[in-house]
Structure formats: C-alpha cells, structure tokens
Amino acid sequence: MIRVLIADDHQIVRDGLKSLLGALDVEVIGLAEDGLDALHQVDEARAGEDGPDVVVMDIQMPRLDGLEATRRITARHPGVRVVMLTMSDDDETVLSAMRAGASGYLLKGSGAEEVHNAIKAAAAGGMVFGASLAAQVATYFSGVSTRTEAPEPFPELTERERDVLRLLAAGRSNDQIAGELYVSSKTVRNAVSAIYGKLHAAGRAEAIIKAREAGYGRD
Q1: Ramachandran region of residue 82, left (φ > 0), alpha (ψ -120 to 50) or beta?
Q2: Could you tell me if residue 149 is inside a domain?
Q3: Pairwise CA distance, residues 142 & 147, whole Å
Q4: How many structural domains is the chain composed of?
Q5: pTM more than 0.70
Q6: Fewest CB atoms less than 10 Å from the CB: which of 6, 94, 192, 202?
Q7: What residues of the chain score a pLDDT lower than 50?
C-alpha cells in the first residue's frame, strides 16, 4: 500500500483528500498544514524508516511554500516523490515545480482517478502531469534536450551554506533560518560568516544582493 502525506494549508482540502485516498489503495500517514510542517514530518518519519512514498503538496502555503518544501524534501530524501496539487497553472510555476523535483503536477479540481493515477505513477518512479498542462511540459522537455543546464551558483559554498544563502536572500533572520533548517543558531552564524568570506561580501546586504543576482530568493 502506498504511504502518502498530504500538505495543504486548508483543512477542508486535507480532510477531503484523506477521505478520497483512504477509499483507495493508499494509506494517508500524515497531514501537514504548510511546507515547513511537511518537511518536518518527512524528516521525522524517515528517521524511523516509516516515511511517506509520496507527498501531495499544495504550492501557496504560509511559512514555507510548496516549491521550496519540494526542493528540500527531494534533496534530503531522494526516495520520496512529490505530486503538486494546486490552483496555479502558469508556465513559470509549473516549470519551477519540475526544477524543484516534483514528479507530478495536477490542478485542484482533477478527478479522483487522475489524482490516484498520479500518486501511483509517482510512487513507481514515473512522472505525471495533468492533461491541461501537457503543452508546458512538452515545451520544457524539448528545451532540456537542446540546452546545457546552468551550473549551480556559488560552487565554492557547501550545500548547507547554499541553503542558508537562499534563506538569507528570501529575507529570513538567523533565528528563522535555524528554525527552518533544524540547526542551531550558532551553526547558522558560522555559515553566514563563511558565506561572507567566500563571496567576498562586506556584510549581509551585499551577500543578499549577490544571491538575488544569481536567482536566489525569487521563488
């Protein structure tokens, strides 16, 4: 049976999906009210090796949006698949979800069978996108084959330092960064100091400017 975590900031959506999926060959093992809650639940469950196979994720949520939550979950837990279920169908959001590591993208209002099939496909390692999004997805994949992927900005930084820099660029304080990354404030301070040195930044403002020029903090 496929284990699923549902992340949506509306309780009526969470409860509705739980009822829908509970009637199928899906076990809903958790409900998260935002992206940060989803990330925490996946981290906790995976530590006990009893985590979700698939996270059904909304995009517009408080504290941590679904795109950044997807990016972190797929980076930390490659075996966990994410299916976006959202109201947003604009090209940039769809492509941002794919870049973040989503294995599926459906619009709210999709039928029960479509949602179920997307979850099964994602759990099996496939990718599924709603029929109405076919044009955007086809355009993305046709472009992938003809372009060279841009290198990750700031290769001199460690992965942890890049995580901290992304949150700096998004306007987070050190304490907020520590909370979102589940590390100590001292760890964040050390990372920030290392970032300043490696980027030759005089301080926080200059580091943020460099990060945003590289595309951080825009999602």
Answers
A1: beta
A2: no
A3: 9
A4: 2
A5: no
A6: 202
A7: 145-147
